Amino acid sequence: MSKVIKSNNPAYISKSLIYRKKTDAVEIGGGLFSKATILPASDVTDFKIIDPNAQHVGTKSMTGTLGTAAVGGLLFGGVGAIVGSLAGGNKVKEFAKTHVALQFANGDWVVVEYDTAHGTMIGSINRTLVDVWQKRYAEKQVSPFAG
Fold first, then answer.
1. Which of 101, 108, 120, 122 is most buried (most C-beta within 10 Å)?
2. Per-residue model confidence as pLDDT tens digits over 8-42
3. CATH of domain 2-58+97-140
């Protein structure tokens, strides 16, 4: 997912930002009860990856060893608890964020936060999107945005 974390337009803050390839447009916000702001991708006048090395935010246990040991113990007694703890292992999900700044021809600018964790489908999609934008706007990476 992507989320606008900073902007000169308060209406954009905390909204999603989606690139629509079919229409070559950037869509900010929108949803069940609100209309999205749609800006042509060609209107991007400045672009910058603020933290190209994606800051590591943390890890979260997806399944705890204690949980699988407890289930194994309930089902199969002491042996089940041992096997359950071994099966649970250390399954951990990594959280990483990348921040991208965009400025548009109408004067609006946004800083967007992307989940770019390795090992997740959404992270892979977002890393690909950031790479595509970086190649597309390579000449615009000298921007007024500070890191």
1. 101
2. 999 999 999 988 889 999 999 988 888 999 999 99
3. 2.30.29
